[in-house]
Batch of 2 targets.
Target 1
Amino acid sequence: MIEIDNVSFRHGVAPVLQDVTLLLPKGGLTALVGPNGAGKSTLFSLMARLLKLQSGEIRFDGMDVATTTSMELARKIAILRQDTHVTARLTVRDLIGFGRFPHHRGRPGPDDEEMIEKGLELFELSGLSERYIDELSGGQRQRALVAMAYVQDTDYLLLDEPLNNLDMHFARTLMKQLRYLADRYGKTIVVVLHDINYAAAYADRIVALKDGRLSAQGTPEEIMTADCLGALFDMEIVIETVRGRRIALHHAG
Amino acid sequence: MTRTRDRSKRLQGVPAGLFWLAGPVLAGLVVASLLTGVADLDLDGRFSGEAVELLLVSRLPRTLAALLSGASLAVAGTIMQMLARNRFVEPTTAGTAECAALGLLLVTLLLPSSSLFIKMIVASASALAGTALFVTLIRRLPPTQPLMIPLTGIVFGSVVGSVVMFIAYETDLLQYAGVWMTGEFSGVVKGRYELLWGSGAALVIAYVFADRFTIAGMGKDVSVSLGLNYRQVLWIGLLIVSQITAFTVITVGMLPFVGLVVPNIVRRTMGDNTRQVLPLVALTGGALVLASDVIGRLIRYPYEIPAATIFGVAGTAIFLWLLFSRQAQRG
Ligand SMILES: Nc1ncnc2c1ncn2[C@@H]1O[C@H](COP(=O)(O)OP(=O)(O)O)[C@@H](O)[C@H]1O
Ligand SMILES: [Mg+2]
């Protein structure tokens, strides 16, 4: 379970998050949505102890991120940040392999090798495994970074806009893989998504953030209404039902 | 299931076999270094006692000093480039060497009778302080301008270097300052280079921390996510770098650009995974510095040209070639 308790945060004087309180049950896929600048990435950074909490508390299964050791947290939470930019010239396999570091701390064993193979396969990177990441396309690199977070093999996985740079095929594949990880292994996954239709199609619940405050949360059915989305993004959004699915027509209006 | 990890597939330009020639080449260089010098090593007959003495007291220490300083400076450059996330930093483009010299100058002036050990401590402490200052300075630079970092370092190093020269000039120690900043091995004899084994020890420690340096090279956020104590790794890296630099400056004098050229040559074909490249970086660094020393002994025989000068010329040429050939490939 993720408990976010009264978290507020300022960058300088500008308030970025205000009294965010949120409970996410263990297991399942949660989509975090909201306009640019709503504070989603900041919330993620706080959850993954990349930023220091200024007020409030965050706990994963009762583990307080402010007091638990970083190494322990590294076996509990994996995060892919929105703007991860790896400049080191590493092969895809080596990059993914570093996701195992919290487990082997420098001495990889057969388990680690196995997990890396699984990661390569799951994210369709086997053919690219010996390529250097600076010789990949943006989308391929993004998949390698997701795979790196995956092999960290944590109960909680936080992915900030993982669909960036991915084409339709890989965007759908990634969402399906995340769904599979949640269903098959009981992982708790939180994903920042921009396309609300992806959120509706794959998530168990949607959490909406606006201007640093929690503005709505619920099942996709509850959130996918013209009123709710319209208020969240300050624009008119038409919801249609196509083949039993609610689709937001947000791109033309 | 078999999995081949054929890295030669990825090579660009430089054939992989070239690296594996490094062993025989190194052996050849060592022999050349042992045989080259003004005093004749008479090998016609048996080894005379004199020849053995010459080998053990002068030629062997000189050879080892070149190998150790080359290997360790190359590794210091690798670590710095990882930690600064910039391919152009090394002990002389970050002020490290100049700060070591400043420390050494001050301790020579203020505590002239202090032991070598004290001098070493002061020099490495001041190298560490200088490098830490440099790291703090470059935090404020935009990451989109990679050349700003070494430029800042060079300016910083020049300022410190000028202070060193000024104080040295005022106190008649100019000769020393020159020796510290221009590495050469003609003065190396048994008993006068052993501090460099400290650099050898630093190499071993660097290898132990290799994975952590690679992770730190992926940035602070990735490091923290993977449970690494980022600050600690940064300090360990800086400590290793300043030790190696101080040891080199004190014993043989600084060898500029070894830490810049060697890691960049190696990474082109082998990448940045520190654990994998470190042995090769050390080997290449040792071999190139030894080669520079041997060439420096031969070129104006019986006079000697400092290894730092030879390396500076050859290394810079190699580096520029690498830089431009890569751009040609990309463009
Ligand atoms: N390092 C920073 N310094 C100052 N302001 C920042 C910084 N990072 C983010 N902000 C501000 O905080 C707000 C929230 O940003 P962010 O969490 O990245 O939003 P989101 O991910 O929802 O788009 C924005 O207004 C942004 O400008
Ligand atoms: Mg964001």
Note: The interface with chain B takes residues 45, 48-50, 69-75, 77-79, 81, 84-91, 94, 98-99, 101-102, 106, 130-132, 152 of chain A (CB under 8 Å).
Target 2
Amino acid sequence: MSIGADAFGFVRDHVRAESAIVLETGKEYLVESRLLPLARQTGHDSVDTFVAELRRTRNPALMRQVVEALTTNETSFFRDSDPFVALRQDVLPTLAKERPGRSLRVWAAACSSGQEPYSIAMTTRDTPEVAGWKIDIVATDLSEEVLAKARKGEYSQLEVNRGLPVTTLVKHFQRSGINWRINPDLAAMVQFRQLNLMRPFGPVGRFDVVFLRNVLIYFDLATKRDILRRVRQVMAPDGYLFLGAAEMTMGVDDAWERVPAGRSSVYRIREDQRSCVR
Amino acid sequence: MRALIVDDSRAMRRIVGRILTERGFETAEAADGQEAIAVLESMDDLPAVACIDWNMPVMDGLELVTAIRARPEWRDITLMMVTTESEQDRIVRALAAGAHEYLIKPFTPDALVEKLDLLGLVPTPGGVA
Ligand SMILES: C[S@@+](CC[C@H](N)C(=O)[O-])C[C@H]1O[C@@H](n2cnc3c(N)ncnc32)[C@H](O)[C@@H]1O
């Protein structure tokens, strides 16, 4: 059973309009396999009937999830910008007062090709409150392929054009042929390793800040709940969790509370839940 | 909100123009630096942003940036270079001359929109230019 030409055409046009990603003919199998979990979650047993319903209802949430499902490694520097503003203006200055040891540990838990952890690294450099601190960023992903690119720290013109203010680019990158390479002092702050969020995290230590952005969206409710619970166990009780713009803890794992930070919000372990993690 | 597009390529002006119009900008165009200055001088309502190519006949983009920065009455115009010039020292030179942002060609529509967002240039729908 494979996806019909009609359904494929609809998905291709929609994804192109929303993400600039082009799914050429021949990618039917990819579309089928990426959309099947979403189809199942919504009570369909084929992608074709799922897409037929989508064409009829144009349910905005589902339309967005289709794009998400097909852009799984999509990322950019300072993605959505607001979280990084919150990190610089709110989260880091607050943590700075609570950490006499002048060191912080950050986890980028689905780091894709590295733009996210490097954006975190750049942000810490631009935050006077933590200037001179020891900042360790652990960046993990399921995919070895994206991790290899992340470790290399080299990005194309198109990639740096997205989301990176030019002053930041010339400050933190060097030209390398036709690409741009992250400066060694920033690269040294980030340690990349493979980690599957569905499995036990292993001995990762304790984090002050966790970025878990644009990945929960791929999991079913039970998995989301389980991941959020285990993230709590590796977080400092007064730590901060960043989720993607379309993700939340509400109704998933209510041990978290949403607190405003900058123009967006972050999540913290609720006061009455903190003792359990100590 | 207005935008001025300065590029000697008509095709490029059209591409950038379409993206900006879709974003809610009213656009004006010029084919080189000198024409851009003439357009600015003729405008009652100054543009919020100028997208400026580097290599143009008559007066190039870097000279234009320098000329605009020398006029205090134009200090509120945000200047963004949109060019194939991608060497690091070029970028640094443009910034030193007074450009705020720098977009390297080729770029996707998203990239231009993201730069505008970074600069806080978001026209209010239905608002007066
Ligand atoms: C859309 S990207 C998000 C990247 C980045 N966090 C951001 O917000 O820009 C999702 C990433 O999650 C990774 N991923 C998917 N399933 C995963 C899992 N079970 N464990 C760890 N990473 C996973 C994918 O490899 C991909 O790189």
Note: The first strand of chain B starts at residue 2 and ends at 6.
